[in-house]
Design a protein that fits this description.
Trigger_fact/SurA_dom_sf, 458 residues, peptidyl-prolyl cis-trans isomerase activity, 3 domains, Triger factor/SurA peptide-binding fold, isomerase, 4-stranded mixed sheet, PpiC-type peptidyl-prolyl cis-trans isomerase, Chitinase A, domain 3, alpha+beta
C-alpha cells in the first residue's frame, strides 16, 4: 500500500522530474509539440496534464484542449517578456518553500521523496524554482489583463434570474470558522545539541578528516549525503536564503559556522564558484519533529481562550495579534475557501475530516480547547477554533448565496476578457505546432490559418 501511495504521488508531482521521458514503444515524450517564441511545450507536458485529471478521477479534456491551454500559458510568458512583467524573487521563494513542505507532508517524509526521485530536496527545489516563477508570471499577466473587470449587483441578478427555478442547485451546509495558531518549536536545548554536534564535526574536518565521509555518515539530507553532501552547482536564488547567504560569504574549501534554515541546521563547505553559480556541499541535522514542544503553545492558547470567553478580548483581534498563521490572522482568523476566497466553507466531503468531525460536536459561537494539528505545509502546531456561523442546506438563494453568484459572474467576465486579449495578442508572438497536432484549433481557429502562427513543426 505504501509503495502504491508513493507511486501515485510521483505521478502527481511528475513535473518535478528532469531528463528524457519515454512513452509506449520507447517514443520520447520530450519531443517539442509546440513553440511560442522562445518557450516550448513538450509532449511530456501534454501527457502530464492529461494524467493529472486521471489521477484525480476526473474526465480529461481532449488533447487539443489541453494543448491550447499549455500554448496559452507559454503565450502569457512570451508576452510577459515583451511587456517586461516580472515577479518578486521573495514571492517565488515563499511559494517554493510552501510547495516543498506540502510534498514532505504528502510523501510522509523527506526520505521518501529522496528515494522516489533519487535527488536531494535541495536539488529538487532548484529544479522546481523556474516552474514556480513561470506560474507566478502567468498569474500576474492574468491579473494585469483582468484588473479592470468588475461585476455589478444588476449583472449578478440577471445571471441568477436566467437560471430556471427547477435547475437551481441545492447548496450544502456552510460554516464560518476562525482559528488562532501557534507553532510548536524546537526547544533551545534541542537546537543547542544539534549545533554542538555540527561544531564537533567541523573540528574533525579541521583536524584532517574527510568532509564527504562525515556527510555520508551523519547528514540527514539523504539525497546529498550519499554524494558526500555534494549539492552540485546552483544558480543564485535557488537555495533558501540563509543557506545561500552563508555559502556565498565563504572562500573555496572554507567551512561556515552552523547555519539554521527551515530545513534544519547546516554545516556548509564552499567548493567552487563560476560566474553566477556556486558549488557547495553540506551536512544537515534536523530536530526530531515528533518531539517538538507543544506545551508552550498549548498553555498560551489556553490562557488566550480564557480571555476571549471572558470578553476581555475579541476573537478577531486575538487572531490578528497572536496567531502565527499570517494568512488567516490578517482576516481575523477566518479560514477561507482556497478557490473562491469566500469565508463560507462547504460542510461536506471537501472539508478537512478532522475539522468536519469537530464542528459536528460544536455549537455556533463556541471556541474549542487548544487542539494539536498538522498544518498544510507539515508543521506541528496547536490551534483554537471558533465556530462563527452556519448556514443550513438550502436551494440556491440570491441573498444567501450572493457572494458565490458574484464570483461565478466575475469568473465568466474574466474569462471573456482573457479570450479577447488572446485574439488581440496572438499576432505579437510566433507560434509553431507539430504536424501531429495540426488539426487542433488554437484560440478557436485552425492552426494553419491562425494569425501569427505557422504550421511548421520542430
Amino acid at each position: 500500500m505504501k509503495r502504491l501511495l508513493i507511486q501515485g504521488l510521483i505521478a502527481t508531482f511528475s513535473w518535478l522530474l528532469a531528463g528524457p521521458v519515454l512513452g509506449q514503444g520507447g517514443i520520447s515524450l520530450n519531443k517539442i509539440v509546440a513553440k511560442v517564441d522562445n518557450y516550448y511545450v513538450l509532449k511530456s507536458d501534454l501527457e502530464e496534464a492529461y494524467q493529472s485529471y486521471v489521477g484525480q478521477n476526473q474526465t480529461p479534456p481532449q488533447k487539443c484542449q489541453l494543448l491550447e491551454s499549455l500554448v496559452i500559458n507559454k503565450m502569457m510568458l512570451a508576452k510577459a517578456d515583451i511587456d517586461s512583467v516580472v515577479v518578486d524573487d521573495k514571492l517565488v521563494d515563499s511559494e517554493l518553500d510552501a510547495r516543498m513542505s506540502y510534498m514532505i507532508q504528502q510523501f510522509g517524509s523527506e526520505k521518501n521523496i529522496v528515494e522516489a526521485y533519487g535527488k536531494s530536496l535541495e536539488m529538487l527545489k532548484s529544479e522546481l524554482r523556474q516552474q514556480v516563477k513561470d506560474q507566478k508570471v502567468v498569474q500576474k499577466m492574468q491579473q494585469k489583463i483582468t484588473d479592470d473587470v468588475k461585476v455589478t449587483p444588476r449583472e449578478v441578478r440577471k445571471f441568477f434570474d436566467s437560471i430556471p427555478r427547477d435547475s437551481l442547485p441545492y447548496m450544502p451546509a456552510e460554516v464560518e470558522v476562525g482559528q488562532i495558531v501557534r507553532y510548536a518549536k524546537p526547544t533551545k536545548e534541542q537546537k543547542d545539541a544539534l549545533r554542538q554536534r555540527l561544531l564537533d564535526i567541523k573540528k574533525r574536518v579541521q583536524a584532517g578528516e574527510d568532509f564527504a565521509a562525515l556527510a555520508k555518515e551523519f547528514s540527514e539530507d539523504v539525497g546529498s549525503a550519499q554524494n558526500g553532501g555534494d549539492l552540485g552547482y546552483a544558480k543564485r536564488g535557488m537555495m533558501v536564503a540563509p543557506f545561500e547567504g552563508a555559502a556565498l560569504k565563504l572562500k573555496p574549501n572554507e567551512m561556515s559556522d552552523v547555519v539554521e534554515s527551515d530545513f534544519g541546521l547546516h554545516l556548509i563547505q564552499l567548493l567552487d564558484t563560476r560566474g553566477a553559480e556556486y558549488h557547495a556541499r553540506h551536512i544537515l541535522l534536523r530536530p526530531d519533529y515528533n518531539r517538538l514542544d507543544t506545551n508552550e503553545p498549548t498553555h498560551f492558547l489556553d490562557s488566550l481562550r480564557t480571555l476571549i470567553k471572558a470578553d476581555s478580548i475579541k476573537f478577531e483581534k486575538a487572531a490578528r495579534d497572536f496567531s502565527e498563521d499570517k494568512t488567516s490572522a490578517d482576516a481575523g482568523g477566518l479560514l477561507r475557501d482556497p478557490q473562491s476566497g469566500s469565508s463560507r466553507l462547504a460542510m461536506d466531503g471537501s472539508m478537512e475530516y478532522a475539522l468536519f468531525t469537530l464542528l459536528d460536536t460544536m455549537t455556533v459561537g463556541s471556541i474549542s480547547a487548544p487542539l494539536p494539528y498538522r498544518t498544510e505545509d507539515g508543521k506541528s502546531a496547536v490551534r483554537l477554533l471558533y465556530f462563527k456561523s452556519k448556514v443550513q442546506p438550502h436551494t440556491a438563494d440570491f441573498k444567501l448565496d450572493f457572494e458565490k453568484l458574484q464570483n461565478i459572474v466575475l469568473a465568466n467576465k474574466k474569462n471573456r476578457a482573457i479570450d479577447d486579449w488572446f485574439r488581440k495578442s496572438v499576432g505579437d508572438v510566433y507560434i509553431t505546432v507539430d504536424p501531429e497536432y495540426q488539426g487542433c484549433r488554437i484560440f478557436g481557429t485552425s492552426q494553419a490559418s491562425a494569425a501569427g502562427t505557422s504550421g511548421g513543426g520542430e
